[in-house]
Specification:
This protein has 136 residues and is an alpha/beta fold. It contains six helices and four strands, in the order E-H-E-H-E-H-H-E-H-H. The protein starts with 6 loop residues before the first strand and ends in a 9-residue tail after the last helix.
């Protein structure tokens, strides 16, 4: 039996940003990782939808926990609402990252794909904020 991997959810106000971030992270980490996008509103407008976040968390959870990355402050509020609705048992298995959305998702996905636990995957996502982009 394969070991459960930490799942990842990307929450953005834009469905396209969420989907593109997931696509990039999946290409770096492989297809075995459960990584889900929760972006935009059901009508296609910008925003975050707690119901979509709930569904993404449920789909990403294979038993090793779920890391949620967000783009803006109200995405945090929508994610917190989703966790309240999912209940304490599920919420206890979820961590919310304050790291950068794209870089955090990519490094978190790579770390999760090699079997790191939720604490290590969260740390990697948050450390992505200090990754140098421009050699100096």
């Amino acid at each position: 039996m394969e070991e459960a991997l930490v799942g990842i959810v990307v929450v953005s106000h834009s469905a396209q940003i969420a989907a593109g971030t997931v696509e990039l992270a999946r290409q770096m980490a492989g297809d075995d990782l459960r990584i889900e996008a929760a972006g935009g509103m059901p009508d296609g407008s910008l925003g975050t939808d707690a119901s979509a976040i709930m569904a993404a968390i449920s789909a990403a959870n294979s038993g090793a926990g779920v890391l949620v990355l967000v783009d803006l402050g109200s995405a945090v509020l929508a994610t917190q609402t989703a966790l309240e609705l999912l209940g304490e048992d599920v919420a206890a298995q979820v961590r919310l990252s304050g790291g950068p959305l794209v870089e955090g998702a990519v490094v978190a996905a790579v770390q999760a794909s090699v079997g790191d636990d939720l604490t290590a995957v969260l740390a990697a996502a948050e450390e992505a904020a200090s990754l140098p982009k421009i050699p100096g």
